[in-house]
Amino acid sequence: MIKSARTLASEDNLTALGDILKSCRLCAHSCGVDRTQGEKGRYCNAGAEAEVSSVNAHFGEEPPISGTRGSGTIFFANCSLECVFCQNYPISSLGNGRPISAQKLADAMKNLEARGAHNINLVSPTHYAPQAAEA
What we know:
The chain has about 140 residues and is α+β, with helices and mostly antiparallel strands. About 30% of the residues lie in helices and about 15% in strands. It contains 6 helices and 4 strands, in the order H-H-E-H-E-H-E-H-E-H. It has helices at about 5-10, 10-20, 65, 90, 100-115, 130-135; strands at about 50-60, 70-75, 100, 120-125. The longest helix has 13 residues, at about 100-115. It starts with a helix and ends with a helix.
């Protein structure tokens, strides 16, 4: 039996995910900052609200992923990995992005679906897991 998105993202689960932001341990660094009180992650530099750099149909992935109408990519700003040769450095390390509410993020996903994207591809979302789950 397939569960609905609402069942999977129950209020209890969303509350538990949101509580993680109070002493952040979303990535392996477990820096413990309180992102709900304006603190930023020590490694990811992320706050309480998700930040997105771009939302597009992306055709640069392997054909089974991008298909004929593209992979619906949502690039999240900031990252905790600090990879030296990151191909998305301006996004991941410089934080090039804009704040986005959970509702606007959900709308962006629906828009990609309406445009025919074969999938929704969240790029570097770990530090925004609660916000993505809420969307």
